[in-house]
Structure formats: structure tokens, C-alpha cells
Amino acid sequence: MAFTAVLQSEWTKIRTVASTSWTLALVFLVTVGFAALFSATFDPNNLNAAQRATFDPTATSLSSMQLGQLAMIVFGVLVVSTEYSTGMIRTSLAAVPRREHFLLGKMAVATALALAVGLLTSFASFFLTQALLGDLGIGIGEENVLRAVTGAGLYLALLALFCMGVAAMLRSSVAAISVLVPFFLIVSNLLVSFEATRTVGQYLPSNAGGRIMQVVPNAFDSPETPYGPWGGFGILVLWTLAAVLGGYAVLRKRDA
């Protein structure tokens, strides 16, 4: 099967499975909804002096990414693991014997879709919350703001790709979600919260990749990092590459 046909077949699979469409819709609704809620109820009088001095309107817009990314994790897992739970993987590999083409086609289509939804989500969150912040709001043309908002969309796309790689290794929706959700929601935040474990925690995918969304380095008392926004994004790229290669190695060596 030609690679273009692989892309078309993977697009058909994603488009016709309700769970993947719903998870992408939740990415948008949860992120934009909570961003609007945070901004509508935001009171600058509740900030201490240090927080007021480093207030970052862009970070306020993108703070709900922490919640929206959970739906993106589920999307990335389902795109791959559904093949195994339904037994479709045997038919897919019979139709596309070259396993690298099968995995590359699946990941390319799903990542492009995650990128489109991620960019739509980040820009909608930004413009809506800046309007709600009123005089505290900032324009997209201010220094580093466009990089942060675009970076949020890139972050979500890479997060989905990272989760696809992990799901390809574990080959189970339950196992992959049970590992990834606590890892991103609890472990990453805990490790970076304590001085003794911060050195390790700041190199984990979400903490390093999330640096690209910051315009003010120490906004909301966030700790300093030894890398900049693009350095952190590069660390996330390395994590993603490792996950994809791991998933490919498992797919290549193990029976369907």
C-alpha cells in the first residue's frame, strides 16, 4: 500500500471513531472554558508583591493547559491502543506489512490533527482571556507573546505524539493512561515543587516543554530553569523522539 493510502486510511480511522473526536473536543472545551473562568474571577488584589511584579497575562491564558492536556493524553493513547483492544492491529498490519509505514502514517495524521486543535485552543484561550482581563490584558504583538501562544499548540501536538509512542510500547489503553495521567498530573508537579527533587523534575516532559508558554520567566513564583523556552521545548522533543523510537521497536519485534 502506498504511503498516501496509509495516511488516508489512518485519517478514516480517526475520523470515524467517536472517542478520539470527543477527546479532541474536550481539549478545546476544558482549556478554553477554565481559562475563561480563571480570568473572569481573577482579582489582582489577591496577589502578593512578588506575584504582582511578575504577573504574566499570557500565562494566565494558558494556565488551564494543565487540565486540557489530560484529554490530549487520552487522545494520543486511544489513537494507538484502540488497534490492540479491538484486534484491528492484525488487519492493519496485513494491509500495511511495512510496520514503519503503518506507525509513521498513524502518528503523522494524529499529530497533525493534534497540532490543529492545539493551535485553535491556545489562540482561542489567549484572545478570550485577554478580553476578560480588561486593563491587565496584553496584545498578541507584545514581545514573546506570539511565541508562547504558538508554543502552547506545539506543546499539545508533541504531547499527543509522546503518548502515542508510550501507547505503542504498552499496547493497552488502561496501562498507558494509568501510567501517563499520574505522571503528568502528579509526579511531574511534585518533583518540581521540592528543592531536593527539582533538578530532576525540571527535565521531565511537561515541565521542560511548558517553559515555551512563559513570557515572564518567574511568573507566579515559578522556579528558574537552566534552559530557556526553546531549550525546554528541545528537551520535550528528545523525550518524544525516545517514546516514538521505543514504540517502533516494540511494534517491529513483537507479534500483533
From TrEMBL:
Acetylation in keyword set: no
Transmembrane helix in keyword set: yes
Keywords assigned: Membrane, Transmembrane, Transmembrane helix
Residue intervals passing through the bilayer: 21-42, 62-82, 103-128, 148-167, 174-194, 230-251
Protein name: ABC transporter
